[in-house]
Amino acid sequence: MTIKTSAYERSKLWPPKSIPKSFPKNFKRSEWDCYDKRGQLIPKGALIAAVPATGPVYQAVLLCAWNCQRIRDRLCDIYQRDVKMTVLSGWRPKIYNDAIKGASNSQHLYGRAADLTAFGVPTKSLYEVALKMARSGEIDQGGIGYYPRSRFVHVDTRCVYGMKAARWSQKA
């Protein structure tokens, strides 16, 4: 059974009770900026848009960054070493999301999502750690997607905004 909430009901959930004031030590706001990695709109690698310095997108990026930090910290504990994580894709303006044929209601559009890799950590292990942490409440519940061919994991905080949790895997 799917429980639907109206836009009004979801807006009452914003802002969350606790929004961090700054980015965690291992992530920067610029990691969520939108770069044209494929050369779809402008020269490959060029900045399309930076994450706004205030407002709902900025606050959503902060929440997502803290989830990523908690996942990174857990990986450091598991692997007994410093684990470098990279945000492959963070916030996306609509024009870029459309150009790369992203989902029409992608959580990236709102700054709620990150596609992650962890250096020296198998993608499946990163995925399993994120799933376990979501189940236990150690990270905010949301979407978790596994992309083994592309070698990244998608994490988002959609449940903070009244949406249902989602899990998916890239087809082989």
Question: Could you characterize what this model shows?
Answer:
The chain is an alpha+beta fold and 172 residues long. The protein has a single domain (24-169), classed as Muramoyl-pentapeptide Carboxypeptidase, domain 2 (2-Layer Sandwich). It has 4 helices and 7 strands. The strands form 2 sheets. Strands 3-4-6-5-7 form a 5-stranded mixed β-sheet, with helices on one face. A two-stranded antiparallel sheet has the order 1-2. The longest helix has 24 residues, at 56-79. The protein is globular, with a radius of gyration of 16 Å.
Keyword list:
single chain; alpha+beta; Muramoyl-pentapeptide Carboxypeptidase, domain 2; five-stranded mixed sheet; two-stranded antiparallel ribbon; 4 helices
Set out the fold topology:
Blueprint: H1 7-12, E1 34-35, E2 47-49, H2 56-79, E3 85-89, H3 94-99, E4 113-118, H4 123-136, E5 143-147, E6 152-156, E7 166-169
Parallel strand pairs: 5-7
Antiparallel strand pairs: 1-2, 3-4, 4-6, 5-6
- Rg of Cα set: 16 Å
Alpha-beta classification: alpha+beta
Query: Which residues sit in consecutive blocks of at least 5 with pLDDT less than 50?
Result: 1-15
> What is the class in the CATH system?
Alpha Beta
Number of discrete domains: 1
Number of helices, counting only DSSP H or I runs of 4 residues or more? 4
Principal-axis shape equals: globular
Quick rundown:
The chain is 29% helix and 17% strand.
